[in-house]
Design goal:
- The chain is an alpha/beta fold and 554 residues long.
- Helix content is 49%, strand content 18%.
- It has helices at 2-18, 29-46, 52-66, 69-86, 94-111, 120-136, 141-162, 164-169, 174-191, 196-212, 249-256, 281-288, 302-315, 347-355, 372-381, 397-406, 420-428, 436-447, 489-499, 518-531, and strands at 236-243, 261-267, 271-278, 293-301, 336-344, 360-363, 384-390, 411-414, 451-457, 462-464, 467-469, 474-478, 481-486, 507-512, 536-541, 549-553.
- It has a six-stranded mixed β-sheet.
- The chain is elongated, with a radius of gyration of 25 Å.
- It starts with a helix and ends with a strand.
Length: 554
């Protein structure tokens, strides 16, 4: 059933995405929910147990590990609650299935700090309520789920009356729609008719349209009002996994309660998923790393996503000023030729990449390498036929190259950038009007035009060549090779720049880290000017963790 639900949403994920034409969290709801249910389905398939409880438990863990976005995390909690309801069962009857659905709803509501009605929560609640009523009256599993879905449609049609922003935009709740699509996939399995899944999905949109008068999300005639915003109190959507031991979900939730909004903290003592909208993602990551290791870190600037959507919608406006949502089969007509995905290790560095035209930034670096799945997800979000990936770290290049095998619908090109300065240099060599082959050559050539240096600290005693390194020593690296050590951050920084022969070049670019004092940055800048006033110096607040400075010399 999980596999069928995933396949069902895969067919309609873009239609569900299209419902998010206004600035709410995680605008790719359909895609996020699909990636979540797909991860659940993969883990369920790997479990060979004949027990429905054990398979549901595997799916629950898979959904937690693969949860994407606000809607994906809530979906994972629905599946977690369903697994709780089926725990210990080898088989389940209609009433037990209905009770499991209710358990899923209860778990999802508890996971959300401030539950909002008119969302997937409301739709799933009404669905479970209807399922319980039918099951208690002797309905079969199929009858129970069919009636549940029918009531879910009615609830979905009412969501614009519960959330004014939905009504203004002329859409129903995307998360609720995605949930019903998945439920349609489950029903298709029970009927034994392979075509029922797609038929049900098409009907979901038609039924919502006929009852709510809001417009068919799957039709090219759908009309939506796009709500553009200029400011958000918490513009950065931040989500990641924490892995460790004795992780205290309630304690983490309490600690983060006043750090932002749309907070979701769910998981187990070994794995916790955190989703929150914040002003400064770095502070949240700093807090979380105290509990364990960070994985699948994703940070998105929602204001920029909103701006991009506004621009896209403006281009799609017809002569009457009405926006046209294109069908998935016509998407290739609106794709641009080239897009770029870059890996960045700090909020400030990410902003620089975005300002230079990067479409998607994946948060990661030396100690937090994004996976092939993370990079693939970013590539798929880029509305382009061909996508260039800038790994910006030698440890990430191999994972980036594997994206070519995962993403089939777009052509993927990987630039072998091993540092942030190399990535920026390659990006400056990119020409959106050129062809792919020329861009590849120019971007790879751009890598050799810059030297990269870093200043960080030692985490243990060691011997590196002739250098004796003690835990806590400041280290200077050039092209990933340790070239100097010391006790003073700025003294090591100067020695590192000297090793880079900065005085013989034209430009020195400095990204200073989140733990670097501003007075140290100013002193380093003064030293550079005193030593050679003819060289241009650019300084950016990279706000990267672990590295006090990242240097580019060219």
């Amino acid at each position: 059933m999980m596999v069928s639900g995933a396949k069902a949403l895969e067919l309609k994920k873009h239609d569900v995405d299209a419902l998010n034409v206004f600035p709410v969290p995680d605008g790719d709801t359909g895609t996020n929910m699909f990636l979540t249910i797909q991860s659940a389905a993969k883990d369920a398939e790997k479990n060979n147990s004949p027990s429905i409880g054990e398979v549901a438990s595997a799916a629950s863990m898979g959904s937690l590990m693969g949860a994407r976005g606000n809607s994906g995390v809530i979906l994972s909690q629905l599946l977690r609650g369903i697994a709780k309801g089926l725990e210990g069962l080898n088989t389940a009857n209609a009433l037990q299935i209905a009770q499991a659905l209710q358990s899923g709803v209860d778990t999802a509501y508890k996971a959300v700090m401030k539950p909002v009605e008119g969302t997937i929560l409301t739709v799933s609640k009404e669905t479970a309520r209807a399922a319980l009523a039918i099951a208690k009256n002797g309905g079969t599993i199929l009858e129970t789920l069919q009636e549940a879905q029918k009531q879910g449609f009615k609830s979905l049609a009412k969501t614009p009356e519960m959330l004014p922003v939905l009504k203004q935009a002329g859409v129903v709740d995307a998360g609720g729609q995605g949930f019903l699509v998945i439920l349609g996939g489950w029903i298709g399995v029970l009927t034994g008719e392979t075509l029922i899944v797609e038929t049900l999905i098409v009907e979901t949109f038609n039924e919502v349209d006929s009852s709510s008068k809001i417009g068919d999300a799957g039709s090219t005639e759908a009309k939506h009002e796009f709500l553009q915003i200029e400011n958000l109190d918490y513009p950065y959507c931040t989500e990641f996994l924490v892995k460790g031991t004795d992780l205290r979900v309630e304690q983490i939730k309490h600690d983060l309660l006043d750090r932002g909004d749309c907070l979701l903290v769910v998981g187990t003592p070994e794995v916790v998923k955190i989703h929150v909208h914040v002003k400064n993602p770095g502070k949240i990551l700093d807090y979380a790393i105290q509990w364990g290791t960070l994985h699948q870190v994703q940070i998105h600037n929602m204001l920029e996503q909103n701006e991009n959507m506004a621009h896209s919608m403006k281009e799609d406006t017809d002569k009457n000023g009405e926006e046209i949502i294109r069908e998935t089969k016509d998407e290739e007509k609106v794709l641009k030729e080239f897009g770029v995905v870059a890996v960045a290790m700090g909020e400030g560095i990410a902003e620089v990449f975005m300002s230079l035209g990067v479409d998607e930034v994946v948060y990661g670096g030396q100690t937090m390498n994004p996976s092939t799945e993370d990079l693939s997800e970013a590539v798929r979000k880029v509305q382009a036929k061909q996508v260039f990936i800038l790994p910006n770290n030698g440890n990430i290049i191999m994972a980036a190259r594997q994206v070519k095998d995962v993403v089939q619908e777009q052509q993927v090109h990987v630039i072998s950038s091993k540092s942030i300065p190399q990535g920026i240099s390659a990006l400056l060599s990119f020409n959106g009007e050129g062809d792919a082959e020329t861009n590849l050559k120019n971007m790879e050539r751009g890598l050799s035009s810059v030297r990269s240096g870093e200043v960080t600290y030692a985490v243990r005693d060691s011997q590196y060549g002739e250098l004796t390194i003690l835990d806590g020593d400041i280290l200077g690296l050039v092209e990933d090779v340790i070239v100097t050590t010391g006790k003073s951050i700025n003294e090591v920084a100067k020695a590192t720049l000297d090793k880079m022969e900065w005085k013989t070049h034209d430009l020195v670019t400095i990204f200073y880290g989140e733990d670097t004092k501003l007075e140290d940055v100013e002193r380093l800048q003064d030293w550079l000017r005193e030593e050679n006033s003819n060289i241009e110096v650019e300084i950016h607040p990279g706000r990267q963790p672990l590295y006090y400075y990242i240097f580019g010399v060219e």
